[in-house]
Design brief:
This protein is an alpha/beta fold. Among the domains are: 242-346, Alpha-Beta Complex (Flavocytochrome C3, Chain A, domain 1), CATH 3.90.700.10; 430-532, Methane Monooxygenase Hydroxylase, Chain G, domain 1 (Up-down Bundle), CATH 1.20.58.100. It has helices at residues 27-36, 72-82, 89-97, 99-108, 142-155, 222-229, 259-263, 289-301, 318-321, 323-331, 387-406, 430-446, 453-467, 473-491, 519-533; strands at 18-23, 41-45, 62-63, 123-124, 134-135, 160-164, 166-174, 177-185, 191-201, 234-235, 240-247, 267-269, 307-309, 341-350, 353-355, 367-369, 374-375, 516-517.
């Protein structure tokens, strides 16, 4: 990471460096910025805040042990069970213990969670939860409502500067010490340095590295690759969650049919009307997501198709209770009140990411990470439904507290005006576009719901070849993250949670532990793989 701020024009010459730069305008980034207030913070976002964030698309809600019938311990145990033996138990307990407090924070920011006539939060149950504990907004609009409230709060906070339309490409620093972010204006060639006393990586997930995903286009693994290239330790990269019920209607990204539909009693059937989850798992449609995803994948592969039947369980209530899914179905020419909804597994969430501790610190000095790009150990091999938004706010708050403790005296909130001129356009490269298509296809085919040694080795070879034609750093970052995932999947010779190997279909008790790797180690594995493939 031998990049210095001297090599680039500073973003605001003549002034002190930022106290904190946050890369990412999703839930984790915005919540962390608000918690750091009144400390000056600069948020760098690829898209207008909220528009490129998976958080805004989250339909289920936030899981928290709020009900008198529920407890932190029960939520912890459900999370550990879903994580298939490799969750960090202390991390899980801390996350579930702090859930109710973070929900209160969100209420204070104006999030309109569903409440009954007496003002009590209404709770729903989702897959693999033993109790109803998911706080929602109008059934399937929690993510959008949360983000709308936080965006309003951020816009009203003078200590927060938001820079939209900038793509993070590299970290600035020497050795293990990160001193800022190098970003490029979207659609342009100019790169800009943003020096900082603390950098928070909250850049989101990896969905658009796959051909079918429920994530927005900005979820492309850039932040994970930036950290890996700087030398950060990456953990559990092989564990990718595929949402079982994306609407299979040819859209990119694929519309999500929320888990809450099955929580309300919707069932899965094939073309013959057979309820195929019977005999697969005692919890039927509410089995853990990896099990449901593989069952649906199998029905599709064997030509029987897979459909979500909401007609009896939800019927005429659909538009009122699940307006987002209803609109998506209608736009595809389907009426969920009367029609079966075709579904297929789609990349939805990455359990792995940049290794962090309980305070969000990474293995690099001065760099914290939160949200989907981080690997806290809270999710293990398979994320429990609606724990993602919970993890984002819990660890964003912890990072803010950690930074405040390390830097008790903030600088004044002053920034020079940024040049709003569009600058030179970036060069559109047909070869790079083709390389992205290769990446998305090979990850879906070979590093998807089902994996094998042969397929994973092919994926690594495909990605390495595609990377060789990439010029722009942002595209190279996508390739790097693809390699990290495929290599980690190749090294884990067992099946566990979201990672299923057809050549190693059983769990190996000796591998009931988290995985760790650096980009240097992964590149060595890729080189070795290419020698044997050739």
């Amino acid at each position: 990471m031998a990049i210095s701020t001297d090599d680039f024009v500073p973003a605001y010459p003549g002034k002190d460096v930022d106290d904190v730069v946050i890369l990412g305008g999703g839930l984790a980034g915005l919540f962390c910025a608000l918690k750091l207030s009144p400390r000056p913070v600069t948020i760098i976002s690829n898209a207008p805040i909220g528009q490129g964030a998976s958080s805004a698309w989250a339909q289920g809600g936030i899981a928290a042990a709020i009900s008198e019938k529920d407890s932190v311990e029960k939520h912890r145990d459900d999370t550990l069970a879903a994580g298939c033996g490799i969750c960090e138990e202390n991390i899980v307990y801390q996350m579930t213990r702090e859930g109710s407090e973070r929900v209160r924070d969100l209420l204070s920011y104006g999030v309109p969670f569903d409440q009954d006539l007496e003002g009590r939060l209404q709770l729903s149950r989702e897959a693999a939860h033993s109790h109803s504990r998911v706080v929602r907004v109008r059934g399937d609009m929690a993510g959008k409502a949360i983000m709308d409230a936080l965006i309003t709060a951020v816009r009203r906070t003078p200590s927060i500067r938001v820079l939209e339309g900038y793509i993070g490409e590299s970290f600035i620093g020497e050795g293990r010490y990160v001193t800022g972010v190098l970003a490029r204006r979207r659609g342009g060639l100019e790169r800009m340095a943003f020096p900082a006393k603390a950098v928070v990586l909250a850049s989101g997930g990896i969905g658009h590295l796959y051909a079918m995903t429920t994530n927005p286009g900005e979820a492309n693994g850039h932040g994970l690759a930036m950290a890996a290239r700087a030398g950060a330790v990456i953990s559990d990269a092989e564990f990718v969650q595929f949402h079982p019920t994306a609407l299979d209607v040819g859209s990119d990204p694929a519309p999500l049919a929320t888990e809450a539909l099955r929580g309300e009693g919707a069932i899965l059937v094939n073309k013959a009307g057979e309820r195929f989850m019977e005999g697969i798992h005692a919890d039927l449609e509410l089995a853990p997501r990896d099990i449901v995803a593989r069952a649906i994948h199998r029905e599709i592969l064997e030509g029987r198709g897979a459909y979500l039947d909401c007609r009896d369980a939800i019927g005429a209530r659909f538009n009122d209770d699940f307006p987002t899914v209803f609109a998506a179905a209608q736009s595809a020419g389907l009426d969920p009140v009367k029609d079966l909804l075709p579904v297929a597994p789609a990349e939805h969430y990455h359990m792995g990411g940049v290794l962090t501790d309980a305070n969000g610190r990474t293995s690099l000095d001065n760099l914290w990470a939160a949200g989907e790009v981080a690997s806290t150990g809270a999710h293990g091999a398979n994320r429990l439904a609606s724990n993602s938004l919970l993890e984002a706010v819990v660890f964003a708050a912890r990072i803010a507290e950690d930074i405040q403790g390390l830097m008790p005296t903030p600088r004044s909130a002053f920034w020079d005006e940024m040049d709003a001129a569009p600058g030179l356009p970036s060069q559109r490269n047909i070869e790079e576009r083709d390389a992205i298509t290769v990446l998305r296809n090979t990850l879906s085919e070979n590093v998807g719901v089902l994996r094998s040694r042969e397929g994973l080795r092919k994926a690594l070879a495909d990605i390495q070849k595609a990377e060789s034609v990439c010029v722009r750093q942002s595209i190279q970052n996508m390739m790097v993250t693809g390699k990290l995932i495929a290599a980690a999947a190749l090294m884990r010779e067992e099946s566990r949670g979201g990672h299923f190997r057809t050549d190693f279909p059983d769990e190996n008790p000796a591998m009931a532990k988290r995985s760790y790797a650096t980009l240097k180690e992964v590149n060595a594995l890729v080189a070795e793989n290419l020698e044997t493939v050739i």
